[in-house]
Amino acid sequence: MTALTVEILCSEAAIFSSIESQHSEPILYGITDGKAIGTYLEQKFKLYLKERYEFAEGNSASGIDFPGLLVDVKVTSIKQPQSSCPFKSARQKIFGLGYSLIIFVYDKADDSANRTATLKILNTIYVSVERTADFQMTRGIRNILDNEGNQDDLIAFMLDRNLPVDEIEAANIADEILANPPAQGFLTISNALQWRLQYSRAIDRADQEEGVIAVYRATS
C-alpha cells in the first residue's frame, strides 16, 4: 500500500470533499453540535484514506490527526469558521502551531422529507506549518523589524497585545525573533485556555499567498 504524503493528502481531500458534498447522511439530520459534525467528518476522511494508504494515526498523545506528516484536520461551519486547538506555548502565536492544517469548511443542509443531512464542503484549505501563526501578531512584529525595532520595541509590542507571557519570557522571545524573524501568519488566534483559531482570512487568501492553498472550492 502506498505511503501517504502531504501532496496525496491534499489531492485526496479534494476528491473526498466532492464526494461528501453529494452524500445524504441520516446520522447528521437535526444535529447542530459542531464538534459532533467535525468528529463525523474527520473519522470518515481517515477511514477513506485508510482504505488506500499507509499512515501513522494520531492519538491523544500526539494531539494531531497525521503525526507522521505533521498535519491536523479541522472541520468548521462557514457560518463561523473557527475551532479550538491545544495551547502549548505563547510562541505558537508568533512562530506557528508547529504543524500544518487541512481545514474543511462546510455548509450543512437538512432534508426534512428524507430526514437526512448533507455537508456541502465549500472550501478545503491547506495551511502550511510556517503560515499557522497569528496574522496581526506577525504583521506587527514584521513591521517593527522593518522599522529598525529592537528588543525593547518587541517586548512592548508583545505585552501591549496581551501575549500570555511575563517580561522574562517576552525578552527571550524577542531575542529569538531578532535571530529568526517569523513568517507572516494567516490565522487569527485568540487567547484562551485553549487557542481559538479563526480561519476567515486563510479562506479568503487561499491561493493568493505562499503556503495557503485552496485544495478544493465548491462550484455553485
Helix content: 25-40%
Largest sheet: 4 strands, mixed
Please give the number of β-strands: 9
Q: Return Rg in Å.
A: 19 Å
Mean pLDDT, to the nearest integer, reads 94
Distance between the termini: 36 Å
Question: CATH architecture of the largest domain, please?
Answer: 3-Layer(aba) Sandwich
Q: Numbering strands along the chain, what is their spatial order in the largest sheet?
A: 3-5-6-9
Structural class: alpha/beta
CATH class wording of the largest domain: Alpha Beta
Share of β-strand residues: 15-25%
For this structure, the CATH topology of the largest domain is PvuII Endonuclease, Chain A
Please trace the helix and strand order, writing H or E for each element. Answer: EHHEEEHEEHHHEEHE
Number of helices: 7
The CATH H-level superfamily of the largest domain is MvaI/BcnI restriction endonuclease, catalytic domain
| Outline type | elongated
Spans of at least 5 consecutive residues with low confidence: none
Q: Any chance you could write out the topology, listing elements then pairs?
A:
Blueprint: E1 2-3, H1 6-20, H2 34-50, E2 53-54, E3 71-77, E4 82-85, H3 92-95, E5 100-111, E6 116-127, H4 135-146, H5 151-160, H6 167-179, E7 188-190, E8 195-198, H7 200-205, E9 212-217
Parallel strand pairs: 1-2, 3-5
Antiparallel strand pairs: 4-8, 5-6, 6-9, 7-8
Helix pairs in contact: 4-5, 5-6
